[in-house]
Automatic annotation (TrEMBL):
UniProt signal peptide: none
Spans through the membrane: none
Organism in which the protein naturally occurs: Myotis lucifugus
One Gene Ontology MF term: calmodulin binding
Gene3D superfamilies assigned to the protein according to its UniProt record, in alphabetical order: 1.20.5.190
Protein's name according to its UniProt entry: IQ motif containing F5
PANTHER family, sorted: IQ DOMAIN-CONTAINING PROTEIN F5, IQ MOTIF CONTAINING F
Length: 135
């Protein structure tokens, strides 16, 4: 009978030790999975930040290029207007008449307003020139 009680007691101790080892292993596994999930989430956030930084840089670069192209177009139109003014003033004399006018830049167009007087006749010209600006 003593041998049976001792065997039962040793079995209980072994089962208790195995249960404690299994619970400890489960606790370690849960902790490790939580650590891996945190690392994975941090990696996802880092990838998202990197992607958004690259997208922002591309958008910024595109806006700079578009601004440069619009400025280049504006400078060409301004240069052409100055050349026209120069030649007109050079050829202008009281017998030929005079030209007056102005221009202004609106959102996507150049507006020209000219008045040409030749003797008693006055010609008014209003023209809008669209500029190639993309939205």
């Amino acid at each position: 009978a003593a041998v049976l009680v001792q065997a039962w007691w040793r079995g209980t101790l072994v089962r208790r030790a195995l249960l404690l080892a299994a619970l400890s292993a489960c606790t370690i596994q849960r902790w490790w999975r939580r650590v891996l999930a945190g690392r994975h989430e941090a990696g996802r956030w880092a990838a998202l930040r990197e992607y958004s930084r690259k997208e922002w840089a591309a958008v910024r670069l595109q806006s700079w290029v578009r601004m440069w192209l619009v400025r280049l177009r504006y400078c060409r139109v301004l240069h052409a207007a100055r050349i026209i003014q120069l030649y007109w003033r050079w050829h202008n004399c009281p017998t030929r008449g005079c030209i007056q006018g102005n221009y202004d830049m609106r959102e996507k167009q150049l507006n020209l307003h000219l008045e040409i007087s030749l003797g008693s006749q006055v010609y008014k010209i209003h023209q809008s020139i669209p500029l190639p600006i993309k939205d």
